[in-house]
Amino acid sequence: MFSDMSAQWLLLLIFLVLTAFVYKTNVILGKETGIPGPRGWPVIGHLPLLHRKKIVHRTMMNLAQKYGPLYELRLGMLKVLIISSPDLAKEILKIQDASFADRPLTVMGELFGYQRKDIIYSPTDDHWRFMKKLGSEFMSSKAMQKQQVSRHETLMTAVDSLLECQQNQFIDLREELLDMMLTLIPQMLFGKRLIAGKSVAKSSESNIMKKLTQLFKELAKLDLSVVGDCFPFLRWLDVGGAEARIVKLHLQFDNILSDAMNALRREAPPATSEDPGLMQTLLSIQRTEEGKNITDDEIKALVTDLFIAGIDTISSTLMFVMAELMRNPEVKEKLLKELDEVVGRERVVEESDLVNLKYLKMVIKETFRLHPAVPFLLPRKSMGPATVAGYKVPKDTQVLINLYAIQRSPESWDDPTSFKPERFANNLIDVKGQDFCLLPFGAGRRQCPGMGLGGLMVEITLATLLQILEFSLPAGMKPEDVDMTEEATITSALVSPLLVSVKPRLSPNLCSMRT
Q1: pLDDT > 70: what percent of the chain?
Q2: Where are the strands (E) in 57-108, listed by range?
Q3: What tens digit of pLDDT does each residue of 58-106 get?
Q4: Which fold has domain 34-510?
Q5: Residue extents of the structural domains in the chain
Q6: Which residues are documented as binding site?
Q7: Residues comprising the binding site for heme?
Q8: Which residues does the record give as heme binding sites (predicted)?
Q9: Closest C-alpha among 200, 191, 214 to residue 138
Q10: CA distance 371 to 403
């Protein structure tokens, strides 16, 4: 039997041998591809570029200026291609879409994707196609129409809440917008009755809203740089403890989802036109002959996808568009003028009005361009050997498309760092995945299935807030003083609070849930 000291020396020897193997393998592969890129550290490669204090998408954009729109990084044992031009994005997402349709295996995907049973992290196979179809039905035009009343009521409740803040001198609009989405999205997923505490839930299942809010904010602070993703043979060591933290949060979230499912199973779906929510809809399908093979984990995986992705991306976009409007008062005034001309001040804006709010759409499109909620598209992985821009790409190579760099490229956009919604006035470029210089929802078969719902949520929320409320900066603060400094997180966020005061813009009887 080994002594403790002998065991430690054996582990050290194994580690050194494996490290030498990793280094030799990466050197050989690097020579095979010939793809340009910066020189990395031995063994760890370019992992220091992912330091939590660095804004990674900007670092990658700067590297593209030196090494070109296609360059290679080595993150431990992983080979990663960084794409920074519309033409190369089209090559990956359209021309060779089938060859780069897979997703890499990650700890986050394994846990929050319920062993990759979801849409986001699942490999491209029949199960992924089934889950995508299931999720798309919830986000169809018919389904979104059914959710309209609930959306309106939630937005008007948020307006009431903001008006109550008049007693305070200022509010942090970042927090208010996040809280708004932390109410609206869960209602869509779990149903208004359960979130509002009006279901037959037992005491152990109550306060779901409070639990979800707390968990989401903890998840947002989580460092998702897991050593085991880059060095799979070291995963068992959990260097830094990142995986343990992810496991802990996942268990908490899984318990919340289980409680919600138990509560919803004890009550029938609402007999009225009220939208029952995604989870109740899926549970109803599960009880049919057609859906009897749908597992609880698959339902949880789909709900998790929409919860995490929906809240983060929508609140981020709204935060940046409001910050830009406070920084550019002439744009805000032009948008308010359009709202007054199209909708007026005698009623509250409705979703049917959105088609006529052309400038609103331009403002949102420009926000998508300048401040993508997710600066990198979710990573893809080559399903076999491929060739990109004349370079040989080995199987299992990961591909990261830097939206931030593409959407700020002077080759595609005039004055790319300025906020100018008018650039889309006579411009047919859209966000639906056909124009590869503007890809907030991605493109190809792995395009975000929530594109329609996400776009609608941003449009109606922004239109409602701006029409009903008047937002002002603190006295003495100039528009150019609005701090647009980004935080070093996976999704885009502002470092500084967005402090504003609010007051009614319409008559009091319209600024109420009673309308």
Answers
A1: 88
A2: 70-75, 78-83
A3: 999 999 999 999 999 999 999 999 999 999 999 999 999 999 999 999 9
A4: Cytochrome p450 (1.10.630)
A5: 34-510
A6: 448
A7: 448
A8: 448
A9: 191
A10: 9
